[in-house]
Structure to design on (464 residues):
């Protein structure tokens, strides 16, 4: 299959092709990011997207059971017998009228794509199954990542469930929530805590992987992004193949937005959809490099000729000031997003926007999402916080159909949730107050009652 799928430089002035089995994940000619590319003319393709519904009746086959691999015709880089799946991608696109009311959308217009239902509790499994399969195709025995917690949890689970590889995980000190750290430890990953943050860890892991020949599964790996395209296919399927007006996604390392953009560009070029949705990326205000560059400094893809000098100057100024990412949404606490050029491309092709949300706005949105019936971690709630702004600004109108991608499960970061809802000011202060959160407007506080039947009955009748 090697000649039908290959890697290709995203720089339109280079377009160098790279062998499918190469694991450097950088263009050898110009150093740009790589895409996985296909010779679609020689590949069998469905005539309509509805074709994929037929796979449901073949669920006894693990590849058709997987919510990722049943769409493999749209990322055909792996022979079926090399695929490693643990049943990822059984996720839900839920209509969310209560949250729609919060952001100002009409009933029936907001959907939440709940990726917390994946085996490791986040969207990462969509991409990990694809990268892991590629790793197996290259006969790797060790796989590494730097992580704010979810990539590492996902890698640890794939290694443990398949026993095919050893997981090596780099995390920043004190920068990972306990839910995620516990997964890495429980599933037996070698966990390396670096005295630094995610941006430092990502730099280190790339050098270490190169030196030791360890397979890298961060989202610089284009095979990861191929798996993440399927989140969009499942959304289209849930909407009966109607393209929504907007997809809203949190922005960290910008793998998701890059992958979603690629999915829609391909579907359009293959004639399977007429138009892409618009993409909205939401940064945390304490980690807002993409927002700053795109909305404040006017950085654009510009057909691939984006202003590298502007990008480099911004990064150098950040380094010189030693400016570090700082947000309670620890999953997206990233100031040097590695996929930035691909994200610019996605926004150009899909008519995108970027917004930022403060920790206060994120935690309030998170409580509203939870009260509406789906539990998410703070980074995921940035989507709803950002959408609230876009509706207020009139950029999203109340009758447009919007899907927010909830990337990670509420149990990933129970500390943030408990601190928000606590009745104890000291607990609130220790976790949230000292990081700038002033109030918990939508807190659901536990009711304190004496150990006495009459008092308990009285309290219940008062509140429920
Ligand atoms: N949401 C969650 C829950 C995440 O874990 C991440 C990234 C993102 C959003 C941002 O996605 O990088 O595609 O823009 N987490 C990575 C990790 C960095 O290491 O787990 P992105």
């Amino acid at each position: 299959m090697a000649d039908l799928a290959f890697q290709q430089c995203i720089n339109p002035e280079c377009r160098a092709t790279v062998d499918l089995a190469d694991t450097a994940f950088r263009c050898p000619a110009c150093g740009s990011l790589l895409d996985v590319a296909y010779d679609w003319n020689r590949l069998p393709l469905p005539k309509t997207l509805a074709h994929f519904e037929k796979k449901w009746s073949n669920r006894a086959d693990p590849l058709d059971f997987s919510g990722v691999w049943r769409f493999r015709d749209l990322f055909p880089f792996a022979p079926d017998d090399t695929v490693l799946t643990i049943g990822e991608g059984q996720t839900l696109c839920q209509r969310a009228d209560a949250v729609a009311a919060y952001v100002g959308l009409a009933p029936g217009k907001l959907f939440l794509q709940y990726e917390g239902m994946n085996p490791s509790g986040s969207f990462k499994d969509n991409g990990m199954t694809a990268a892991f399969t590629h790793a197996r195709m290259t006969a790797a025995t060790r796989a590494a990542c730097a992580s704010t917690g979810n990539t590492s949890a996902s890698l640890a689970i794939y290694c443990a469930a398949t026993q095919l590889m050893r997981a090596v995980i780099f995390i920043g000190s004190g920068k990972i929530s306990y839910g995620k750290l516990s997964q890495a430890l429980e599933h037996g990953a070698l966990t390396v805590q670096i005295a630094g943050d995610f941006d430092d860890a990502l730099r280190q892991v790339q050098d270490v992987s190169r030196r030791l020949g360890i397979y890298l599964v961060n989202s610089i790996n284009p095979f990861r992004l191929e798996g993440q395209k399927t989140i969009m296919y499942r959304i289209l399927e849930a909407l009966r193949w109607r393209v929504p007006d907007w997809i809203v996604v949190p922005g960290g390392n910008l793998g998701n937005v890059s992958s979603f953009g690629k999915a829609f560009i391909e579907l359009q070029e293959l004639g399977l959809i007429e138009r892409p949705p618009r993409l909205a990326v939401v940064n945390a205000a304490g980690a807002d490099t993409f927002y700053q560059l795109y909305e404040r400094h006017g950085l654009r893809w510009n057909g691939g000729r984006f202003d590298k000098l502007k990008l480099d100057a911004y990064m150098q100024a950040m380094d010189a000031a030693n400016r570090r990412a700082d947000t309670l949404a620890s999953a997206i606490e990233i100031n040097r997003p590695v996929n930035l050029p691909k994200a610019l491309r996605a926004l150009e092709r899909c008519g995108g926007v970027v917004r930022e949300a403060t920790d206060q706005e994120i935690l309030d949105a998170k409580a509203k999402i939870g009260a509406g019936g789906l539990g998410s971690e703070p980074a995921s709630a940035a989507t709803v916080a950002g959408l609230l702004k876009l509706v207020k600004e009139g950029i999203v109108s109340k009758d447009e159909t919007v899907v927010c991608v909830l990337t990670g499960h509420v149990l990933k970061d129970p500390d943030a949730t408990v601190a928000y809802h606590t009745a104890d000011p000291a607990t609130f202060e220790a976790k949230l107050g000292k990081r700038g959160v002033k109030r918990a407007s939508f807190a659901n506080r536990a009711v304190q009652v004496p150990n006495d039947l009459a008092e308990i009955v009285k309290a219940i009748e008062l509140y429920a």
In short: Residues 122, 147-151, 219, 250-256, 331-332, 377, 379-380, 407-408 surround F0G (CB under 6 Å). The radius of gyration is 22 Å. The mean pLDDT is 96. Residues 32 and 444 are 48 Å apart (CA to CA).
